[in-house]
Automatic annotation (TrEMBL):
GO terms for biological process: phosphorelay signal transduction system; regulation of DNA-templated transcription. Residues 145-210 form the HTH luxR-type domain. The keyword Ribonucleoprotein does not apply. Keywords: DNA-binding, Phosphoprotein, Transcription, Transcription regulation. Transmembrane segments: none annotated. Pfam families: GerE (PF00196), Response_reg (PF00072). Residues 5-121 form the Response regulatory domain. This is DNA-binding response regulator. InterPro entries: CheY-like_superfamily, NreC/VraR/RcsB-like_REC, Sig_transdc_resp-reg_C-effctor, Sig_transdc_resp-reg_receiver, Tscrpt_reg_LuxR_C, WalR-like.
Length: 213
């Protein structure tokens, strides 16, 4: 079985030592170097040509995101796995967009990290469950944002506009010369089509998407 050459990048010596201690016990992994910032990582990638780079995100100087972007751009054969303490949506998205093939948290189980390294060698992306959750949340938000005002009827659009103005059902009924019952029916249809739970959520969604600017 081919030995996997790994470069570890982290500005905390304790993390570096811990990773090195564990990984060097794996028969299929060779630790070829370690770096404490993005600039050092780039220099060592050029000099050592590792298969895998385990990359921290927040480091002095060149960040893990920028280092990942440069590595994947200039050394496409080198696979970068982010190993970070951060699982927020922006960090995960930036890392993936920068070209990282994996995103794991530093509390990842050792055997899972090994699986992630092996998967990266096969070109398979792997994500920590928390990172996956963040990406799924982002996808759901994008899908919601793609909802178009065109799915509403002309009367429903008018009712929703009055809702965004903060008017009550009674005020909307008086303004449009219809019954409150009819207003409630329109609101029910609006919420169903937009997949919203209440009128406030629908009003915020319409405002966020500038439907009535």
């Amino acid at each position: 079985m081919k030995t996997i050459k790994v470069l570890i990048v982290d500005d905390h010596l304790v993390v570096l030592r811990g990773l090195r201690f564990f990984l060097q016990t794996q028969a299929t992994i060779e630790i070829v170097g370690q770096a404490q910032n993005g600039e050092e990582a780039l220099q060592l990638v050029h000099a050592l040509q590792p298969d895998i780079v385990l990359m921290d995100l927040i480091m002095p100087g060149l960040s893990g995101i920028e280092a990942t972007r440069k590595i994947t751009e200039h050394y496409p054969q080198v696979k970068v796995i982010i190993l970070s303490s951060y699982s927020d949506r922006d960090s995960v998205l930036q890392a993936i967009k920068a070209g990282a093939i994996g995103y794991q948290l530093k509390d990842v189980r050792p055997e899972v990290l090994i699986e992630s390294i092996q998967a990266a060698m096969d070109g398979v992306k792997t994500l920590h469950p928390q990172a996956t959750h963040q990406l799924m949340s982002h996808v759901v938000m994008e899908i919601e944002d793609e909802k178009s005002i065109d799915i509403l009827t002309a009367k429903e659009i008018v009712v929703l506009k009055h809702i965004t103005l903060g008017q009550s059902n009674k005020e909307i009924a008086a303004e449009l010369h219809i019954s409150e019952k009819t207003v409630k029916t329109h609101i029910t249809h609006i919420l169903a089509k937009l997949e919203m739970q209440d009128r406030t959520q629908a009003a915020l969604f319409a405002t966020k998407n500038h439907w009535f600017d």
